């Protein structure tokens, strides 16, 4: 990476960890522990619920595809970050955006504010005013939640009215935020496309994981399960939405006619795949202690 970004990245990381009693590699260590804990949770879920789950050779392809799609999540997050910056009139290069997005995702295993604080700090480091950075982050979140609510309305006919109202209110909030912040229209329109890809990507991953464990699911129903991630993320006080995502997935699985255990197990497997993809990206991009040098 460039010397300029290396210095900014090191400064960003050191400022985040100073005063919190953490070492700079704490997020990676915690995520490794979480991956192990979630692996144990998978076995516990299968045993406790008596699920007839058999990962045979037929599961290799859908799980591989789900993992490859998980690898695209940081790429989408980086594009989202760049567009959020452009809303404010600032910008960054693609590699810097990807590195910061991966680190922010890793930081989400920390308590509130985690990844959001990292991204906001990164936006100000790239020239955005604090007020406009917060407004851009709010607008991005509202767009994502409104699309997730629309996905719920599409997938849950019995709750279509409630989900449609929520989507409409969130959309109105997005338009209000866009107008009050005087943000640029083109990046905002591009954000709608990126957030739509986030929702479709999450639904596809859920569909593939459930297919791998032998659960037959309508592709439209997977949209409802994908929305559980959006709902869980709104409860930022829970690090990484651990447990919240799984609980919501189990509840939504019941609503669409699947066993609760299938939704729970699917969410746990998805979490392992996502953490695995972040670990891989962190190795590729060199997300390590500030001041560490390549040999």
What is this structure's SSE topology?
Layout (H helix, E strand, L loop, with lengths): L2 H15 L8 H24 L10 H29 L5 H14 L6 H12 L4 H26 L4 H22 L3 H28 L6 H15 L10 H12 L4 H26 L10
Labels describing this entry:
mainly alpha; disordered C terminus
Quick structural overview:
The protein is mostly helical and 295 residues long.
Which sheet architecture does the biggest sheet show? none
- Domain module count: 1
| Structural class category | mainly alpha
How many β-strands, per DSSP?
A: 0
Question: How large is the share of residues in beta strands?
Answer: under 5%
Q: What pattern of helices and strands is seen along the backbone?
A: HHHHHHHHHHH
Arithmetic mean of pLDDT? 76
Write up what this structure looks like.
With 295 residues, this protein is mainly α. It has one domain. The longest helix has 29 residues. The C terminus is likely disordered.
